[in-house]
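Ticket 4471: requesting a sanity check on a complex prediction with iron/sulfur cluster. Repro inputs:
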Amino acid sequence: MVKRVVKKNGDELFPLGLGAMRLPTKNNSIDREVAMEYILYAIDNGVNYIDTAYAYHGGESESFLGEILSLTDEDRVKYRDKVKLSTKLPSWMVRSREDMDAFLNHQLRKLQTDAIDYYYVHSVDLSTILRLKNLGLYEFLEKAKSEGKIRNIGFSYHGSPNEFNELIDDFNWDMVLVQYNYLDVNAQAGIRGIEYAYENDIAVFVMEPLKGGLLAGELPKEVSDLFDSVDSEKSSVDWALSWVFNQKEITCVLSGMGSLEEIKENMAIAERVEVESLSDEELDILDKAQGIFNSMMKINCTGCGYCLPCPKGVNIPDCFNVYNEKYLFNKKMFNLIPHAMMNYYMVVGGITNKQSNAGLCNHCGRCKSLCPQSLDIPNELDRVKSEFELFGFNYHIKFIKNVAMPSINKIAKVFDFFKNS
Ligand code: SF4
Ligand code: SF4
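Returned C-alpha cells:
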C-alpha cells in the first residue's frame, strides 16, 4: 500500500480517512464503547486521518474524538500523535468575525488539542465564502494559521460546478473536500473542479464515495448483474471505492464506518487499489454501470454545468441530480422521510448561504439553448418543484437555516457546559 502525499506539506496519508459524521449510536447518542473500538482499530491498523465537524452528532462528535485521541496505545504513544485531525468551521452559524475565533477556540477545547491539522470552512458555495469574506474570514484563517492553531486551510464544497474554480483562485487553499463517486462525476465540484485543484497542488479529500450509502447496498438489477458478470464475489462497495482510489488526483477518501467489518473491508480496498491500478476491463464495467444509471435517469442531465449561472440562482444540475436520485433509489427511504427530500432541502438552501431551488426559476429561457442534452430546463424544473417543494417550502428552508441548524450550536454548548461543570 502506498500512502498519498499532500503536496503542499509532505504529509503522507493512508488513502482511507475515518469520517466521524455517522458513528454508531445508541439511545440517540454516540455508542461510545462501540465507536471507540472501531476508531482505535482503524488507527492501530494504519488509518492516520480522522475527520469531524462542529455540527456532527449534535456537537458530540468533536468532544468524543477529543477523549479518544487523548488516550495512549500500548507503547504509550498518544493517539492524537498518530493521526492528522480535521474539523470544520460551521459556516452557516457564523454571524461575525468574533464568532470565528469563538468557534475555533471552542473546537480546540473539545478536541483537547493545541492545533487542528486540517481546518475546513464547512459546506460552502461561492456566495457563502463571499459573505464570510466580508466578515473577515481570510484574515481569521491566516491569523489562526500563523498562531499555529490550524495547520492547513480548506473548504468543503456544496456549490455548483461553474463557481468552484473561482473559489479555488480566491485564496491560498491547502485542500478541498468534495462529494465524488462514480455517479456524481460532474456534480458540485465534479471531475473538472477536482482536476483544477490537483493542478494547483491543492489536496483533494473526497466525501460521499458511496453516495451516502446508496452505492453500498442493493443496486438496480441491471447494474448488479453487470458487476456479477465480472466477479460475483466483488461487493458494490469495492466497485465504488476502487473507482475513487484509482484516480491520481485524490489524496484521501473519507468513509463513514457503521461496523468493524465495514472498516476492515474499506481498509483492505484502500490498501489494494493504488493509483491507476484498475484494469481496462474494470474501468469499462464501471463506465457501463454509469451508462445504465444514466439511462434510468428521469431527467437526462449529465451535470456538465453549461447552463450555469442562472440569473435567479437556481442550481440546475443539483436540482436534477436529487430528483433522479429519488427514482433510482426509491427503495431506500429513511423511515417516513425520503432521503432525496432531505437531500433536496440541504442542497438548495438548508445549509448554504442562498436558496437555489427549482421554484426560483422564472422561465426566462436563458439556459435552454446552452444545454447540450437539449433539455427543456424550465419545464423540468417545474417537475422538480412540484415533487419537492410542498406547501410551506420556503418556511421549511428558513426553519432549517435559522432555527434547526443554529440550535445544534446551542445544544452543543449546553452539552459542553454540563460536561465541564
Ligand atoms: S429559465 Fe429558469 S433556470 Fe433557466 S436561466 Fe432562466 S430562471 Fe434560470
Ligand atoms: S446544461 Fe443540461 S446537461 Fe448540463 S447541467 Fe445543465 S441541464 Fe444538465
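Notes from triage: Residues 4-288 form a domain with the TIM Barrel fold (CATH 3.20.20.100). Leaving this open until the requester confirms.
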